[in-house]
Amino acid sequence: MSRLQKTTILIFGITGDLSTRKLLPALSKIVATGECGDVSIVGVSRRSITVDELLASAGFDNLADRTSILSMDISQASEYDRLSRHLALDSSGQVLVYLAVPPSAATQIVDFIGAAGMCTPNVKILFEKPFGVDYDSAVEMIGRTSRYFKEDQLYRIDHYLAKEMAQNIIAVRGGNALFSQVWSNKSIEAIEVIASETLGVERRGGFYEQTGALRDIIQGHLLQLLALTLMDIPPGFDWKALPKFRLAALEALRQAKPDQAIRAQYKEYQDEVGNPGSLTETFASLTFTSTDPTWHGVPLTLTTGKMLDTKFTLIRIHLKKQHEAQSNILEFRIQPDEGIRIELYSKKPGYNQAFEVRHLGFSYPDDEQLPEAYEQVLVDAIRSQKSLFTTSEEVLRSWQLLALVQQAWSFDSTQLYRYQPGVSASAVLADMTKLPPEFPIES
Ligand code: BG6
To answer: Which is nearest to 45 in space by CA: 22, 69, 27?
Structure first.
């Protein structure tokens, strides 16, 4: 598809949290660059709302005259003929259907769209994660969507893959001998991927109650960052080959074992979602191992939590030490302060021969604006570039990797450990294991 053809972005859930916090700001920036040709937006909303009401508070003035809103009941099949007429689909442009709705609603909408005949080759469907809620539901979703749409029309979003520093993992690992030489269990003894969030569940209590930290962050975002860290680099940096290489890394992982998984919940969560006794985890930490000989024996730990002390996402590589007085930490900082940081012992200036820790690395200067992940996702979908979207095989494999833990947690009705909002991820882990964490987590 040509880059400059007309694109209509049809957003289900236009008034929701994702749309107002991420999609509309991203679209406003994309439109301002003029790089994606003629873009218009059709928002679908159950409640009746005007374009001015939707955009006014947010200040996306450049979207106003290219946006329209259709109020409809998305659970009624008959409404989709009206939607189809509103779109006036023809072959002169493409339609991106953005499903900013939970997985159960997404499948039904795809059925209705397909049945209403809106499944021509110029229609693409963008799914928000999680794709399904477990392995079986993902298989079912894949089967149902394939009745109307081909795989090349489906874009499964994991916006962490589109973060600038996530893409940079590949560039830095493959582009520098310094990194490629040490990238195996010969030099690396452990890898941690951590996403610490300060926000709670905000307006998304209903969604979060059915999701939890395991499905929300670990199944997609953190497993994908881990895959980028472990996978072979495609020859010639062929970005199109990324999904295949990520999948190979996921295939080599063993399923996480319940005795290597921890879950917890922040105090106040149950009141916030109005569900006393809720067993939904807002904090989770799982350790994987890989069958790939390159990574044999290296613990791979993924940790995430909401309502913690700091917002950061990073990948921390622990190099093997030759002796105790060596530093050994290399970090990919996915956000904030995007960049790379290496802990470095150096001589402390002065007359005494003492050492001190300094940091070697880079981060992007403040005036160098990095594209937001959702801008990249939308631009790539408009241009039909799929390397930063997850394939059905990747989705299925990631659910398989979590299956034992999901099963164990669904049968365990004991109250979760409850942590104080504002504590650090390492404090939660230390408290739960009653041991000082072997590798302290800090931002
Ligand atoms: C989303 C999750 O996918 O990612 C949210 O559903 C989470 O719960 C968000 O807050 C974090 O994204 P980011 O880009 O702000 O780190």
So the answer is: 69
Residue closest via CA to ligand 1's atom 9 equals 217
Q: What is the pLDDT of residues 162-205, one digit of tens each?
A: 999 999 999 999 999 989 889 999 999 999 999 999 999 988 88
CA of 235 to the centre of ligand 1 (A): 32
> In this predicted structure, what is the pLDDT of residue 1?
45
Distance from C-alpha of 50 to C-alpha of 288, rounded to nearest angstrom: 48
User: What are the pLDDT digits (tens) for 146-156?
Assistant: 999 999 999 99
Q: How many CA atoms lie within 13 A of 274 on its CB side?
A: 6
306 CA distance to ligand 1 centroid (A)?
Answer: 10
The response to whether residue 197 sits with its C-beta less than 6 Å from ligand 1 reads yes
Ligand 1 center–CA 83 separation, angstroms: 30
Q: How many angstroms separate the alpha carbon of residue 137 from the centre of ligand 1?
A: 22
Atom of ligand 1 nearest to the CA of 220: 3
Distance CA 279, CA 24 (A): 33
In short, whether 292's Cβ falls inside 6 Å of ligand 1 is no
Compute, in angstroms, the gap from residue 174 CA to the centroid of ligand 1.
28
Please indicate whether residue 128, judged by its CB atom, sits closer than 6 Å to ligand 1: no
Whole-model pTM: value is 0.92
Residue 439 backbone zone (phi > 0: left; psi -120 to 50: alpha; other: beta): beta
The pLDDT value recorded for residue 180 is 86
The number of the ligand 1 atom at minimal distance from the alpha carbon of 216 is 6
pLDDT digits over 396-441, tens only?
999 999 999 999 999 998 889 999 999 999 999 999 887 555 555 5
The three-state secondary structure class of 307 is coil
Give pLDDT tens digits for 59-84: 788 898 899 999 999 999 999 999 98
Q: How is 28-52 classified by DSSP, letter by letter? A: HHHHHHTTT-SEEEEEEESS---HH
